[in-house]
Fold:
Amino acid sequence: MNLRVLRRYHAQIEESLRAELALIQRETTEAEEVRRRVVALVDHDVQRYLDDMANGLSPDETVARYARFEELALQIEREDEFIARAQERAEQKRAEVLAAARETKRMDLLWQRQQRRQRQLDLRREQQAMDEAAARRYVAELQARQKA
Structure:
C-alpha cells in the first residue's frame, strides 16, 4: 500500500481519537458542573432546613425534606459514578491517542526516509545521465579529432 495513504489513514485515526477524547472530557466537565450545582443546592436546602427547624417544622415536612435530601444524595452519587467512569474512559482514550500519535509519527518518519531515498536515487540517475552525456560528447569529440 502507498505510504502516503497509510500516513493519511493514521493521521485520520489519531484525529478521530482526539475528537472522541474531547467529547469525553466535555461530558466529564458537564457532569462535574452538574455535581457542583447539586451540592450547592444541597447546601442551600440544608441551611433552609436548619432555619425552618429553628422556627418549627411539622413531621410531614421533615419527612419530605429528608426524602429530598436522599434524592439529592443519590443524584450526587450517580454523578460521582458517571465522572469516575468518564475519567477511566478518558484515560483509556488518552492512551489510544498516544499510541495513534506514535504510529502517525512512525509513518511520517518512514515517509521522510522514503522521500530522502527517492531524492538520492533521482540525484544518482541525474548524475548518471550527465555522465553518459559527457561520455558520448567525449567519444564524439575524439572521433571528430581523429577524422580531422
